[in-house]
Amino acid sequence: MLDIKRIRENTDAVRQGLTNRGADVSAIDKVLELDKQRRALLTEVDALKNQRNTVSKQIGQLKKAGEDTSAVQTEMRRLGDRITEIDQQVRDADTRLECLLLRIPNLPHASLPIGPDKYSNQVARVCGEQRKFDFKPKSHVELAESLGIIDFARATRMSASGFILFVGAGARLQRALISFMLDMHIKEHGYTEVWPPVLCNPAAMTGTGQLPKMAEDMYRVPADDLYLVPTAEVPVTNIYREEIIEKPLPVCLTAYTSCFRREAGAAGKETRGLIRVHQFDKVEMVKFTDPSTSYDELEKLVTNAEDVLTRLGLTYRVLLLCSGDISFAAAKCYDLELWAPGQNDWLEVSSCSNFEDFQARRSNIRFRDKDGKVRFVHTLNGSGVALPRLVVAILENYQQADGSVLIPEALSPYMDGARMITAEGLK
């Protein structure tokens, strides 16, 4: 959440930041008014507590002198009752203020292009060339069904639309990609692997910004008041919830999880195949950094995600998202998109974001700076990367005229040296 001091002391800048991202600025007026009332209450209760201390001393002096204390004790009780009343009002104000602050998004970084939606995003770079075919390329759905590596019909029958059943070489491809990406991030990029739960409580979901804003997009288990994670960002970031990180920063963690999203309202051609699904696999990267280095670490994070795509020999582009297209909690975000010839389109496979101290304030994650002062860390995360659309890009870019699909060279060691997926299996 935003620092109330920042809102109080830089109100115009906060308003402009929210305006740039197309957010409602009226909540700022409510926050400032409530903050003003709260501070007035605190001033009053502090004065009353000082007065009570003075009266308490008077009672002691009167008793010592053998004088009547009944009137002073009556005043003491009156002060105590009023202090109790105001303390409750302060607690109520704190609760209402937190509810307001939890619904205000992060402010976009000054380096972002200003615009209302994805059409204002900037292409930072394009890497690789789009493959030219001497035959009409098929979509990943056609390829997967003809090769027998994904069973869409049975997945729908056992679950619902938007769920996927990988079979044979399709399942091997999934497992190979997960191992390949984890090995790269651990052995080459310096991340520590963790294996977190995929069910988290509301406090964890609130800490990373999924709640209360995106409650409708989450799968919830009502009996236990737990949520299926939409991304490993949630449990991994919450590892240090309510803690002071005592180890040197940055702390870099990576994790594989299944992810679950309702994607409420999703419709159209993207609901066919792997483009938009309700359960998917993803390798995530999370960093806890010193505020002074967080934007350097963001660039490294993007490079780590790009390495996956480069090693797989895929054409991709990096987008700098505009102020109106970044997520609720992000201050700056890059999207990585793969070219998918069967779709004739770019598909997002990674978002790499710097949240500054927005998540850390919600989760109370801190560190000690070089002077020993306890401060909030900056949190970053990025997909490293998400599998469904990565599989789409591999199938569509590596397809052959006979319907087979070549296996990227980097993946071959993870698939027993196989170089091709055919209808008969791996070869």
Q: What global shape is seen?
A: elongated
Named CATH topology of the largest domain: BirA Bifunctional Protein, domain 2
**Global mean pLDDT:** 95
Structural class: alpha+beta
Poorly predicted sequence stretches spanning 5 or more consecutive residues: none
What is the N-to-C order of secondary-structure elements (H for helix, E for strand)? HHHHEHHHEEHEEHEEEHEEEHEEEHEEE
Let me know the CATH homologous superfamily of the largest domain.
Bira Bifunctional Protein, Domain 2
Distance N terminus to C terminus?
52 Å
Count of the separate structural domains = 2
- Count every helix, treating DSSP H or I runs of 4 or more residues as helices: 12
Strand content: 15-25%
Q: What's the architecture of the largest domain in CATH terms?
A: 2-Layer Sandwich
Q: What is the class of the largest domain in the CATH system?
A: Alpha Beta
In what order do the strands lie side by side in the largest sheet?
A: 1-9-10-11-14-8-7-2
